[in-house]
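Example complex used in Figure S2.
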Amino acid sequence: MIIIFALFLLSLLVITALAIVRTENLFVAVMLTSIFSLLMAANFFILDAADVALTEAAVGAGITTVIFLGALALTGEREKPSSGGHSVALGTVGVLGLLIIYATFDKPRLGDPDAPVHQHVAPWYLEKTPEYIDIPNVVTAILGSFRGYDTLGEVFVVFAACIGVLFILGVRPSRQAYDRHDERFGLRHHLIPQVVGRLLIPFIVLFGLYVQFHGEYGPGGGFQAGAIVATGVILYALLEGEAEALRAVPRSVLLGLVVGGALLYGVVGVVCMLMGGAFLDYSVLSSNPVFGQQLGILIIEAGVGMAVCGALLSIFHAFAARGSIP
Amino acid sequence: MIDIAVDILSWILLTLGGVCVLIGGVGGLRLPNFYTRIHAASLTDTMATILIFVGMMLQSGFSLVTMKLFAIMLFLLLTGPTATYALANAALLSGLKPDAGTVTDENKERTGE
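Predicted assembly (439 residues):
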């Protein structure tokens, strides 16, 4: 039964991808990429990857769409007509596609327990997580502790992306530009979206906090929580205008979140070293090694959430402020 | 006995919900212009949501899952109609007039009205 769902979703994915390539209206393309992400999230969920599905739904279908729309407001709605080069591109894609299809012949069957990926380190993680860390969600244990270096790298990538966007777009527009921007774009005069939005924002932020601090027990963690909280603030910005959102969560706070989150993660690692362990070896944080691991994961997840939330909101504001410059 | 009754009731609700989704889909494709189309699509947001979620709640029995389903239903019932309203409002603002006649969007484009 589940395989029918999976096939249905995968064929919808192919149709959506073809529609994205075919359409010349960029607005339609942005909406289709959002649908693509949502379908992908459903696919991940069918494959039992709830953590990834949550991330894809929050970041791919939610925030990326808003940022794309912000970018579209700066450019045009129509794709530039391209001239020539179609046959070369088509040939390259065709050859690569055939190669990938050929490679799948060697691929193990879906969910095959003898597949190499299930024989390498995964059994060790599953076996040792209850002993070393003792939290139910093995994904969080792997991301936070066993592969803490990788996650630290990801946080620094988010940090670098945020800094990069701010360098390119981070022009501070004058006060006057803001006010005009509000009159044009805020939904203050639209009663229904405003009432419903105001009703939903507290619950969105609450759900973000739940995902953040429940990450050890269920799907979720810093990345997803940061994205969900950022969604709540972006909804506020869409309803009340960008200036109001900046008054609620100022730029300095956002930058503090980005820098503070990345720093918090690094500092936990250094503290581990000072207390006699290896970098990011949380066992030394407490007299009980298992509790030390749990404490370390809780703190670095908080750092990840802060960094992701701050970075996404900074990028959103960078695009939105750019659009209001006359 | 009561189990079978609840089961049958929930399947009736689920089927009716599925029919509503189908009607919404067909209407979205077949109706002549924008406003009638979102009218059809809004059937999926409201009627189908209620029917399908009540059906699923009956299937799940009384547990934490029921509460979660209820919360999701409430969320969808709030956001769906709001999205439809925002869509219609945006169309009106961008100059698409609701037309009681038989004029379709395609016709309008052709005659350049």
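Helices of chain B lie at 2-30, 34-60, 64-93, 105-111. The mean pLDDT of chain B is 85.
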